[in-house]
Design brief:
UDP-N-acetylmuramoyl-L-alanine:D-glutamate ligase, Protein-Tyrosine Phosphatase, Chain A, 2 domains, 8-stranded mixed beta sheet, 6-stranded mixed beta sheet
Length: 385
C-alpha cells in the first residue's frame, strides 16, 4: 500500500463514519477531550516522554511552529505537529523536517484503532494521538505542537509544555471561542501549565495583563516578546522565533530559511502568482499591508468557508490595495462559498472554468490567491498541468 492510499484511506474512514466531533464541527457545542485523554493514558501518555513547545493564538501559529522547530532542531532532534495540511496529510507530522512515512502512520493508526475508546475520537483527535506516539517512537527531545482551535479544550492540550507561545490574539471562531477578546484570550491561554515558560507575542496591554494573570495563577513564568515592526509578517515572526530561541538558550541562533509553504509564497516561476493562507481578519490585514508594498496592480482570487465573512476579507484588502475585480476561486467542497452566493454582486466574478483561470493568470500585474489553505492544492495542481 503506497502513502497516497493509506492517508486517503484514513481521511475517507473519518468522512464515511462521520467521526468529526471536534469543537469546530460539533453542533451541540459540548465537545470534551476526555476520550482522548483516556486513550493517551492507556498508551502511557507518550506526549510526556519529551519536552514540548505548545503554541496557541489567532494568527502566526503555523509559521511560528515551523520556525521554532527549525531553530530547536539546531540543538537536538525535533518533531513538528501542525494543521491543516496544504497538499499531503503527512505534512502535519514531521521529525527532523521529514514527513511521517506511510509505514509508520499505518502502524500507529492500527495501535489507536485497537484502543477501547478509539470509536469516540475525532479525526483531529486521532491525528494528535498518532503524532504523540510517533514523536516518542523517534526519540525526539523537543516536540513543537500547534493548537488546532482555541487552546483550553483543544485535542493538543494534553501536553505538559516546557515552553508556551501565545501568538497575536484577535477575533476568530467567535461562535466557539467567545464573542469578546477576553473570552477568546482565556480560551487560548488555557494551554498554560505549571512551571511553563510563557512567551507572549501580543502588544495589546489588556491581553498581556490577562495572560500574565493566568501565568501567576498557574505558577508559570511570563515573558513578553518585543513587538518587531520591520519587514513583512513572516520576517517579523522569524524575529520573534529567534528571540525565543535566544532567550531560552542564551545564545544567538544560526541561520534558518525564512520561506514557509503557503505564506507569501510565489507559486509560479514564470508569472507573479502568489498564495497566502490568511483566513481571518487580522491575517488579511497583514496580507494587505504586504501586498501594498509589492505592487499596485493586483488581481485577487478568493474563497473561504461560509463560517467566515468573505465580504469583510474583501473590504480589508481593498483598504490596502486597489482592486477592480475579485474572482471567486471555485472549490467544490461543502461549506465553501459558491456561485449562487454572489448572484447579485457584480464586483465578485465567478471563475468555474479552469482554462479561463489560466487565461486570467496570464494578465499583466500580480495575482494573489487567498482566503483558505484548502485553495492551495487545487492551485498547485492547476499550475502544474
Amino acid at each position: 500500500m503506497n502513502s497516497v492510499n493509506i492517508f486517503f484511506e484514513f481521511e475517507q474512514y473519518y468522512k464515511l463514519n462521520n467521526f468529526e466531533a471536534s469543537r469546530r464541527f460539533l453542533k451541540t457545542g459540548d465537545y470534551s477531550n476526555t476520550h482522548l485523554k483516556k486513550v493517551l493514558e492507556d498508551l502511557d501518555n507518550p506526549q510526556l516522554s519529551y519536552k514540548t513547545i505548545h503554541i496557541a493564538g489567532t494568527v502566526a501559529k503555523g509559521s511560528m511552529a515551523i520556525y521554532l522547530s527549525r531553530l530547536f532542531s539546531l540543538e537536538s532532534l525535533t518533531g513538528l505537529y501542525t494543521s491543516p495540511h496544504y497538499q499531503l496529510l503527512s505534512e502535519r507530522i514531521q521529525v527532523g523536517g521529514e514527513n511521517i512515512r506511510n509505514e509508520d502512520f499505518h502502524l500507529l493508526w492500527n495501535i489507536i484503532k485497537n484502543q477501547p475508546g478509539h470509536s469516540f475520537l475525532s479525526f483531529f483527535d486521532v491525528l494528535t494521538a498518532i503524532s504523540f506516539l510517533y514523536f516518542k517512537e523517534k526519540n525526539i527531545e523537543w516536540g513543537v505542537i500547534e493548537c488546532g482551535l482555541g487552546g483550553r479544550l483543544d485535542s493538543t492540550n494534553n501536553v505538559s509544555p516546557e515552553i508556551v507561545v501565545i501568538t497575536p490574539i484577535d477575533f476568530d471562531h467567535e461562535k466557539i471561542l467567545g464573542s469578546t477578546l477576553k473570552e477568546i484570550a482565556r480560551e487560548k491561554s488555557g494551554i498554560i501549565k505549571e512551571d511553563s515558560l510563557v512567551y507572549d507575542m501580543n502588544s495589546n496591554l489588556f491581553i498581556q495583563d490577562l495572560i500574565r494573570n493566568v501565568c501567576t495563577s498557574n505558577g508559570a513564568q511570563y515573558h513578553n516578546v518585543p513587538s518587531f515592526q520591520e519587514g513583512n509578517y513572516l520576517e517579523r515572526n522569524l524575529k520573534s522565533a529567534q528571540y525565543i530561541y535566544q532567550h531560552y538558550y542564551h545564545k544567538s541562533p544560526a541561520w534558518i530559511k525564512k520561506e514557509c509553504t503557503g505564506r507569501l509564497e510565489k507559486v509560479s516561476s514564470e508569472k507573479n502568482i502568489y498564495f497566502d493562507s490568511a483566513h481571518n481578519n487580522i491575517g488579511m490585514e497583514y496580507l494587505g499591508s504586504w501586498a501594498s508594498s509589492v505592487s499596485n496592480n493586483w488581481h485577487i482570487y478568493i474563497n473561504c468557508m461560509k463560517e467566515r465573512n468573505i465580504q469583510k476579507f474583501i473590504d480589508i484588502l481593498k483598504s490596502f490595495i486597489h482592486i477592480d475585480t475579485i474572482f471567486l476561486f471555485n472549490i467544490e467542497e461543502a461549506g465553501f462559498y459558491q456561485q449562487n452566493d454572489f448572484l447579485n454582486d457584480h464586483f465578485v466574478q465567478i471563475c468555474n472554468d479552469r482554462q479561463r483561470l489560466r487565461d486570467l493568470f496570464n494578465r499583466e500585474g500580480s495575482h494573489l490567491v487567498c482566503g483558505s489553505i484548502r485553495l492551495y492544492a487545487p492551485l498547485i495542481e492547476l499550475l502544474s498541468e
